[in-house]
Amino acid sequence: MVEWIALDGDDTLWHSQDGFEEVEALFREIVAEYVDPDTARAELYATEAANMSALGYGAKAFTISLVETALRLSRGSIPATELDRLLDAGKGLLTRPTRLLDGAAGAVEELAGRYRLLLVTKGDLVHQERKVAESGLAEHLDRIAIVSEKDHDTYRQLLAEEGAPAQRFLMAGNSLRSDVLPVLEVGAWAAYVPYAWTWVHEQVPDGAPDGVPVLSSLAELPGLVAELAAA
Amino acid sequence: MVEWIALDGDDTLWHSQDGFEEVEALFREIVAEYVDPDTARAELYATEAANMSALGYGAKAFTISLVETALRLSRGSIPATELDRLLDAGKGLLTRPTRLLDGAAGAVEELAGRYRLLLVTKGDLVHQERKVAESGLAEHLDRIAIVSEKDHDTYRQLLAEEGAPAQRFLMAGNSLRSDVLPVLEVGAWAAYVPYAWTWVHEQVPDGAPDGVPVLSSLAELPGLVAELAAA
Fold first, then answer.
1. At the top level of its lineage, which domain of life is listed (chains A, B) (predicted)?
2. Are residues B90 and B111 in the same domain?
3. pLDDT at B123 over 90
């Protein structure tokens, strides 16, 4: 019997990765005179990975990595106007309007009040708060947890703070790495709701583990939870 | 009778602004061939202020503003090597070792266990968590609140979550704007512990309001709290 339902934000409740993909496409276009698209993509991700422990996740870290990689790939010859375009595009991610995914609002409304409903999301504090506010979903959420990393320690601590037994806690999200695998590790339930794009860092080679429900939209979540209750 | 004591992090428990001042000095040196130092400083702060609602506070926002301002002040003619120096210096703030202020550790140890002790800090989530971990103070803190803004709403919500009556809550910090004025607004106690530098954004024209205790170091905080108890 699930009593706690936790939801991821980016690419689960609202679109996010599509914006990063657009900016990355601009980046590849801008550095096209120095490197081919595959190299551009790989080098950008190498910079992001190298910056991650200090900069964490989110659009500000991404913006810094864009500029840094463009300077490196161009050996410093990139025109300032192109750097300005990258800065503007990166910063633009932070003020992009929040667009909910199909089925997200309905699922949240249906689950609210019947379960303790949590949002568990990582990234920039200011940016995530803005998206929560713009989403219109805040009134339905019992708790908003903006965290720096979503690993098993994060979920273990969250369960402890909530006084939630693992077998009564379900997390739904689009990232196997952040929303599914560490949740299974602590003995809780997870539902996988794939998004069209997955950031390289969130990709998991083997796909969803056996037995993890894969939903085509959050609209299927209330039904899944009802099934778990009946089982 | 104070039962809750909240402490600011940056420039109250550990040094922070000195690092930003160093990087700003490097910035002024780098743009010196385009503008005079006062203009450099004013333009950097204008960029930071314009970026604040989207980017928030902290070293990542500062790094983006450094690059953006240097491009603008040089009309795009700044060499890439200088942009690299700015990126490195800005990112370096995020991995700079955490150095406690004199008196901070002793005060925290003395207060821990006798009061409910909170850290209330704003900035980058990842960076603040790193500083808390490096500070060695986490074991003495009952709660760590990393927030996007420290205004009266933030303190009101914190008091509500803690179930703390305002008159039993005291906040100590180096910023009149973030640690003192909004705390007084909600009817709680505040102690002002000035730091050597105050970021322009945190400066308040009139100085500390009458009656607000001004401490020369956190070492004086346990004595102040004892006085409040006796009064």
1. Bacteria
2. no
3. no
Instruction: Extract the tokens encoding A65.
Output: 């990595």
| Closest approach of B6 to chain A, Cα-based (Å) | 20
Neighbours of B128 (CB within 10 A): 23
Verify whether the Cβ–Cβ distance A80 to B64 is below 8 Å: no
Optimal mutation site among B82, B125, B142, B151, interface A, most CBs of chain A within 10 A:
B125
Question: Do A132 and A158 fall within a single domain?
Answer: yes
Would you call B76 and A79 a contact, using CB atoms and an 8 Å cutoff? yes
Question: Please, are residues A1 and A122 in contact by the beta-carbon 8 Å criterion?
Answer: no
Domain final position from B95, B110, B144: B95
Last residue in a domain, options A49, A80, A95: A95
Q: How far apart, in whole angstroms, are the C-alpha atoms of residue A53 and residue A48?
A: 9
Q: Which chain B residues touch A75 with a CB distance below 8 Å?
A: 80
B11 and B107 housed in the same domain: yes
Q: Tell me which residue in B54, B71, B146 faces A91 most closely, judged by beta carbons.
A: B54
Contact criterion met (CB < 8 Å) for B67 and A83: yes
pLDDT given at position A192: 96
pLDDT tens readout for residues B80-118: 999 999 999 999 999 999 999 999 999 999 999 999 999
Nearest CA in chain A to B128: A148
CA-wise closest residue to A5 among A175, A188, A160: A188
Q: What total number of domains does chain A contain? A: 2
The Cα-based distances of A225 to A127, A176, B146, B230 in angstroms read 30, 19, 33, 56
What CATH number should be reported for the domain holding residue A48?
Answer: 1.10.150.240
Cα(B63)–Cα(B23) distance, integer angstroms: 9
- Yes or no, beta carbons of A124 and B129 under 8 Å apart: no
What pLDDT shows up at residue A2? 94
Share of chain B above pLDDT 70, in %: 100
Question: DSSP character for A214?
Answer: B
Chain B residues with at least one Cβ partner in A under 8 Å? 51, 54-56, 60-61, 63-64, 67-68, 71, 74-81, 83-84, 87, 90-91, 94-95, 124-127, 129, 146-148
DSSP per position, B64-77: HHHHHHHHHHTTT-
Residues A112-148 pLDDT 10s: 999 999 999 998 899 999 999 999 999 999 999 999 9
Domain range holding B58? 17-95
Residues B4-26 have a mean pLDDT of 97
Residues of chain A with pLDDT under 70: 231
Q: Is the pLDDT of residue B77 over 80?
A: yes
CATH number, domain with residue B127: 3.40.50.1000
| Mean residue pLDDT across chain B | 95
